[in-house]
């Protein structure tokens, strides 16, 4: 199970992050992308958007909190799906073992 979680975390990066960013409004996504991914400072973003630097900093924090909530929600959904899949696979394995035992017993009786 641990190996699956590590693989999931490695795959979680690019496509899922882009999809989660798309859940944000344009300005929210723009501020986060410029600051986090492009390395712009708050005053540089403020000049681009025509806002005060303090406004950009507060919006950035608010938008990052919103993105964090989106990420948590998506991760919970994915983990729930993974848990369901694992339970299904365990049930399938048990069923296969019971079927195999039944076939062996039937063949011994013949």
Structure characterization notes:
With 110 residues, the protein is mostly helical. Helix content is 86%, strand content 0%. It is built from five helices and no strands. The protein has helices at 2-11, 14-21, 26-37, 42-49, 53-109. Helix 3 (26-37) packs across helix 5 and helix 4 crosses helix 5 (53-109). The longest helix is centred in the C-terminal third of the chain and has 57 residues, at 53-109. The protein starts with a helix and ends with a helix.
Keyphrases for this structure?
rod-shaped, 110 residues, 86% helix, mainly alpha, single chain
Task: Summarize, please.
With 110 residues, the chain is mainly α. Helix content is 86%, strand content 0%.
Q: What is the beta-strand fraction?
A: under 5%
Mean pLDDT across residues: 80
Rg value: 24 Å
Give the proportion of residues in helices: over 70%
Question: Helix- and strand-based class?
Answer: mainly alpha
Total number of beta strands: 0
The DSSP helix count reads: 5
Separation, N- and C-terminal Cα atoms: 41 Å
Shape: rod-shaped
Give the uncertain stretches in residue-range form: none
Strand count, sense and closure of the main sheet?
A: none
Tell me the series of helices and strands, N- to C-terminal.
HHHHH
Assembly type:
single chain
């Amino acid at each position: 199970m641990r190996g699956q979680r590590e693989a999931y975390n490695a795959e979680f990066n690019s496509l899922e992050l882009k999809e989660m960013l798309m859940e944000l409004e344009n300005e929210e996504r723009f501020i986060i992308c410029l600051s986090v991914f492009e390395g712009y400072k708050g005053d540089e973003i403020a000049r681009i958007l025509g806002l005060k630097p303090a406004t950009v900093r507060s919006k950035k924090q608010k938008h990052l909190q919103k993105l964090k909530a989106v990420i948590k929600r998506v991760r919970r959904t994915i983990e729930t799906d993974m848990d369901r899949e694992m339970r299904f696979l365990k049930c399938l394995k048990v069923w296969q073992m019971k079927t195999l035992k039944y076939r062996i017993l039937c063949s011994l009786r013949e």
